[in-house]
Amino acid sequence: MKRIVSLLLSAAMLLGLAACGGSSGAVSSGAASSQAAPAPSSQAVSPEAASSQAAQPLTAQTVRIAGLKGPTTMGLVNLLPMKEAGTAALDYDLQLYGAADEIVPLLTKGELDMAAIPANLAATLYQKTEGAIQVMAVNTLGVLYVVEKGDTIHSVADLAGRTILSTGKGTTPEYVLRYLLEQNGLDPDTDVTIEFYSEATEVTAQMAVAEDAVAVLPQPYVTSASMQDDTLRVALDLTEEWDKVCDTQLITGVTVVRTAFAQEHPDVVAAFLEEYAASVDAANNDLDGTAALCEEQGVVAKAAIAKAALPACNIVCITGDEMRADVEGYLQVLCDADPASVGGAMPDQGFYWLG
After folding, report:
1. Residue 207, phi then psi, degrees to nearest 5
2. What sign does the dihedral 333-334-337-340 (CA atoms) show?
3. Which end of the chain has fewer CB atoms < 10 Å from its terminal CB, N or C?
């Protein structure tokens, strides 16, 4: 028991910072936590009653799912109007947090069922909890950009000698930035200075006062900062830079499920993924509606920012074998560069929920 508690505590401490930050708070609350369906009665029932009893565990199931402010949750928000309209198969309790270190202990204690978190964080958490979570979908591809005041950076090599402001120490932004610097002949520890902040809003605030600021920011914060300061310029799209040196997908976020929950409720996970795909489709095609929801739920400060940023957020719902191939390829690149970035070693096949 002491060993398990130690492992869980170490997971929460190691995975302290998220790729996208903001203030925390619950978006909406479900009335009940997920529970196993009651054992069937031995008393005879009519076919109609039996059908109703069989449907109840799925349609009445509350799914407690957490996300972070920013793109990984922008693909989830359309689940809420589906729930309110009565067209959703599940009852969604969507909770919003500012950093991944708030989500990790809730997952490990069983107080959440699912979460949208950085991809390498999911791999690390899988290792630290001895398989207590599984990845079931890729939710966001590349969303990182280098932004500067001025017109001095036109390649990764131009970052030499500069101070780079960033969020996401220990998660996607740090490892992607370090990998790209190394692939372009720069030592991240000596050729540049990287200053990490816990929230993207802190980076944008620093950008506003610095003379020659350079930052790595995710969408929608790139759009937000540019709308507030027209002297900012998007210097590099890190997805394009990744594609120049690597033949794998750049993955920002994945959606994970507690392994015990998936084993107990495989039908709920399957129903969630179907509705999640519909929510992502709405995020990519109903910009006005999704942007309004993002502001309403606190995912993005303003609907205008969300609407402008959505086309650049690379929101997806990739599942099954394609998900496994993409995640494996991405994590292998990180692992080859630094095994600590994925928890010390590549996760085994138990990491992937394939239905």
Report:
1. -60, -35
2. negative
3. N
Is 342 exposed, middle or buried, given 0-12, 13-18 or 19+ CB atoms closer than 10 A?
buried
Q: How far does the chain reach from its first CA to its final CA, in angstroms?
A: 31
SS (H, E, C) 285-309: HCHHHHHHHHHHHCCCCCHHHHHHH
Q: Nearest 5°: phi and psi at 230? A: -80, 0
Higher pLDDT among residues 206 and 255, named by residue: 255
Tell me, yes or no, whether 41 lies in a domain. Answer: no
pLDDT score of 205 more than 90: no
Question: Model pTM greater than 0.85?
Answer: no
The whole-number average pLDDT for the span 221-240 is 90
Query: What average pLDDT does range 127-140 have in this prediction?
Result: 96
Is residue 47's pLDDT more than 70? Answer: no
User: What are the tens digits of pLDDT across the range 53-77?
Assistant: 333 445 558 999 999 888 889 999 9
Beta carbons within 10 angstroms of residue 268's beta carbon:
22
Q: Are residues 289 and 301 in the same domain?
A: yes
**Could you tell me if residue 51 is inside a domain?**
no
Do 126 and 268 fall into the same domain?
A: yes
- Please state, in angstroms and rounded to a whole number, the distance separating the CA atoms of residues 147 and 18: 19
Instruction: Give the residue from 227, 245, 263 where a domain finishes.
Output: 245
CATH number for the domain including 186? 3.40.190.10
Task: Select from 245, 269, 300 the last residue of a domain.
Answer: 245
Residues 218, 103 share a domain: no
Q: Is residue 25 part of a domain?
A: yes
> Residue 294's pLDDT band (boundaries 50, 70, 90)?
very high
Q: Is residue 158 located within the same domain as residue 135?
A: no
Q: Three-class SS of residue 81?
A: helix
| Share of residues in the chain with pLDDT > 90 (%) | 65
Domain hosting residue 116, numbered range: 2-34+59-142+250-351
Nearest Cα neighbor of 213 from 259, 146, 301, 167 is 146
Residues 296 and 238 in one domain: no
- Using the structure block, give the residue that is written with the tokens 């020659």: 212
Beta-bridge partners for 186? none
Please enumerate in sequence order all residues whose Cβ is within 8 A of that of 166, keeping only pairs 6 or more positions apart, or say none.
173, 174, 177, 194, 195, 196, 197, 203, 215, 216, 217
